[in-house]
Amino acid sequence: MISRLQALGFTIERMPFGDTNNFWAYRGTGSTLAFAGHTDVVPAGDESQWEYPPFEPTIRNGLLYGRGAADMKGSLAAMVVAAERFVTSYPNHNGRLAFLITSDEEAKATDGTVKVVQALMSRNEQLDYCLIGEPSSQYRLGDMVKNGRRGSLTANLTVHGIQGHVAYPHLADNPIHRAIPALQELVSTRWDEGNEFFPATSMQIANIHAGTGSHNVIPGNLQVQFNFRFSTELTDSQIRERVETILKNHNLDYTIEWILPGEPFLTAKGKLVDAVVQAIDHYCGYKPELSTSGGTSDGRFIARMGAQVVELGPINSTIHKVNESVSAADLQQLSRIYQRVMEQLIQ
Ligand SMILES: [Zn+2]
Question: Is 236 assigned a catalytic role?
């Protein structure tokens, strides 16, 4: 990718963090449209289960087979080819065309996009639009794009009491008894009503533990783990504050640890959504459904830069599976769609 972009006159900045290779590449100045994606893939699993070797790309009956064909090396190829055609047609394009490429999305995602975004933000790099090549399509190319994702927030709560003999409760302090009314209030709270793009925020208790196993011991503490899937109506700090207010109102002696696997993001409307919808309609003859479904994605990091973010890629029905494949014609079509997005935003 680097050598092909270099040949087009892109400035390449390698941004390795730890043992993760990333790069940021750009060409031109002004309003910035970045294409983002990952070069890493999930393991192939038992290679003997594959019809064709997972790391030798093979085209059969119009399908390109190989690990990463759909998630998401196919999209990366489509982006580069789109950039080659676009730059050849418009060598003096108006805005800036950029690439943000990581090799750590499928694993821990700690030294990939998140670190590149931090580095770009620390020097006030501008990013207006970002198109991520994640395989968003369901049944036919472009039938769905992702314009946001729900946030995920986990709490590890410990309620402290005093261990003792059940026959001498005045000498102990039962953390289960103390926690029950607070947990009841947490599970019955309506956190928000959701909005046009997101369902209402949901809170689920995933794990709970207390007790020594003995019927005559009041336990010394209780551990609960719960997770929020939250909409853009709330921030993680608002949720944390409301939870801790409830815990304090119940006079709990507690410690709580919060983990934020992903902030929510939403690109409701704007030039990028318009351009993507128009480009799909132009080449496919139908408009995509805008969706915020699914788990977290690297979009959650890129949205921090204030960019409009949309995910558009090929059909995802075989991703992470044996015999992962993608229609070769779809990749060519996808490349034209990407090019048309460039033409609308930075030509
Ligand atoms: Zn992916």
Answer: no
